[in-house]
Amino acid sequence: MNSNIDNLIVPRIDNLGEMSTDGIINALDDNGVRRPIDNIDYKEFPYHPLTTFSMAHSDDMLYIDFFVRCNYLRAINDRPNTPVHEDSCVAVYLQPDSKSNRYYAFEINCIGTISGMICEGDGDNACSFIDESTIGRIKCYASCGNRPFRELEGLFTWNVLIAIPLDMLGLKYDGTPLTIKGNFYKCASGTSQPHFLSWMPLDTTKRTFHQPESFGNIILS
């Protein structure tokens, strides 16, 4: 059952850029918008790790904190633009201009390795990697640290906090609400319990997260 709504109202929080990592996480928990990532898109992969995201923005950055509780944890990929979707991974895809086919796909594993793509339509083949220097502008904190490791079994809780510069998305916030589109995901295709979850439901006949028609409205208020 989808417990989400199409419109995600993301508040502006003062002084986020001046806070410590813990301060940002607490501010997002207390004053940001939070949603579950709870759509099981492919029924043959029923495993459903608890996953949520909390979100807010400043004048120049978009902050997203993902929280996950899972039974298997894997982080083999430790270089940008490697297949982090095979690891314990969260993702956000953002379309800054609904009149354009262009959107940005950011996938992050549990040690903060980011794969970034610019896409121009449906399907994985419509995407090209963002250069590493640009990806390096994204601030990232991972509670698991940043050293790679093979799969572990147990009960794990972890979070990844990212801060994406608005100008990297071609956006400028001047106090007037900005409406963009996007979706949020959880996956781990290379683990012992592969799974594929999303905030907004996907067309299950398409075996990809790259479905911009599924994006919900995100309003930076």
TrEMBL record:
<dbReference type="Pfam" id="PF16011">
    <property type="entry name" value="CBM9_2"/>
</dbReference>
<dbReference type="GO" id="GO:0016052">
    <property type="term" value="P:carbohydrate catabolic process"/>
</dbReference>
<dbReference type="GO" id="GO:0030246">
    <property type="term" value="F:carbohydrate binding"/>
</dbReference>
<dbReference type="GO" id="GO:0004553">
    <property type="term" value="F:hydrolase activity, hydrolyzing O-glycosyl compounds"/>
</dbReference>
<protein>
    <recommendedName>
        <fullName>Carbohydrate-binding domain-containing protein</fullName>
    </recommendedName>
</protein>
<dbReference type="InterPro" id="IPR010502">
    <property type="entry name" value="Carb-bd_dom_fam9"/>
</dbReference>
<feature type="domain" description="Carbohydrate-binding">
    <location>
        <begin position="34"/>
        <end position="219"/>
    </location>
</feature>
